[in-house]
Amino acid sequence: MRKLLLPTLLTAAAFATAAEIEVHGNVNLDYASYFNEDFDPTNAANQDIDLSLKAQLDENVSVIVNGTTKSTYVGADSSVQASEIRHGLARSTAMGSNGRFNSFDFDGAQLRWDVTPDVGIIFGDMTYSAGQINYYFWRDPSRYAVIVREESLRGIGVEVGNEKYGQGKLYFGASEDSESSMALFATYGLPLINRTNEHFVITPSLDWMFGDHIGRSHTYVLGTEIDYTKSLEKFNYGVYAVWGLHPYKGNGVHSFLLEPSMNYAVFNLSATFFHAIVDEDYEAAPQIMTDAQQFFAIEPSFNLHKKLTLGLNYEYRDVDVNIEKDETHYGGLSFYVYPTLNTEVVIWMGYNFDDNNDTDFAMGISGKAEF
Fold it and tell me: Above 90 in pLDDT, residue 189?
């Protein structure tokens, strides 16, 4: 969907006559130094920036135009690929590389009509995903998900509901994956419990793609997300759980995610566990929507100040449970700084306790903001 930005600029000029203009976006960027066994550093910097321009033509009709830019690197096969924030040296953009300075590209447009406060009709480009992983290592839904990674289509969509009774989406149109495929996505978040101090939401989703060449190995994905939170004055806890299913060469691949979290006074604890049941006759990598078949991470942290938190983290990853000696172990230290609402800066350092990484020790800083 990323085309030249000229259509965006032309549309922006037309927006000048609109009754109301809003700019939204998110900025995600980092810098890191990766040290080899001789303690020689390789410095890298990555960014992922999305901007959205919305023109409210009247109280019910609006036009939205999106733009994006990402840093890039040259892969082992000489292809240019988008880098990843705080992921590792292998997928980072080295300082001095031309991949740091990429232009903004057109990333879709929508015409939206809010027929009622609870019903909206959309025509244009729509992007969706389901079963997002919240741990930073796999936080990017365009690459990693339990149910479905980010997909895009151009067509028509309906969004219904509200926070009290639940919210749903139904998208249908031509898939971005190929010129001969169509896509259908449906989801609905149903709040079974919706109190001030307690929330329980269950969200089933279905993604179905059909055509001669759909551009991926599976025709459909279905799954369910469960999100429960409870607040008891100083003690708060929650559980986010996801199940996803999609076919691979005639057999079903099941993916499971469990992310419990709790907070008591100044102490916090969060964990992530992911596991996929795959067809053991084939490698795990092409069957799953993550970098590893099994993943575990845990992070106890302490609030040193209302804007400063210290975290200790450990990660374990197993790329394929049927392959020996492909596991990785990582231990690290993170300082979380919250300058204001919807912003986060993380100063981090860590060590890889295995031989399956490009570097042993790494340190850096990453930041993100939404507006």
Answer: yes
Q: Which residue has the tokens 């999106």?
A: 66
Alpha helices in 47-199 (DSSP H): none
Q: Considering only CA atoms, which of 242, 246, 188 is closest in space to residue 214? A: 246
Query: Measuring CA to CA, how many Å separate 72 from each of 46, 77, 113, 253, 353?
Result: 8, 14, 36, 31, 28
Over 198-226, what HEC string results? EEEEEEEEEEEEEECCCCCCCCEEEEEEE
**Which structure tokens are listed for 121?**
């009709």
Handedness of CA 120, 189, 50, 244 (dihedral sign): negative
Q: What's the rounded Cα separation, in Å, for the pair 180 and 119?
A: 30
Pairing of strands 72-74, 61-70: unpaired
Write down the pTM of the prediction. Answer: 0.90
Q: Is 9 helix (H, G, I), strand (E, B) or coil?
A: helix
Which whole number is the average pLDDT over 6-12? 53
| Residue 223 structure tokens | 């799954």
Which of 16-25, 41-50, 138-147, 289-298 is the least confident region? 16-25
CA distance 132 to 120: 24
Helix, strand, coil percent values for the chain (each to nearest 5): 5, 65, 30
* CB-based contact 82:72 (threshold 8 Å): yes
In whole angstroms, give the CA distance from residue 29 to residue 147: 26
Alpha carbon 128 to its chain's center? 11
- Helical H runs in 77-152? none
In this structure, of 7-11, 209-213, 224-228, 302-306, the range with the lowest mean pLDDT score is 7-11
Q: Which has the higher per-residue pLDDT, 19 or 150?
A: 150
C-alpha–C-alpha distance, residues 85 and 144, integer Å:
13
Q: What percent of the chain has pLDDT over 90?
A: 80
Give 196-210 pLDDT, tens digit per residue: 999 999 999 999 999
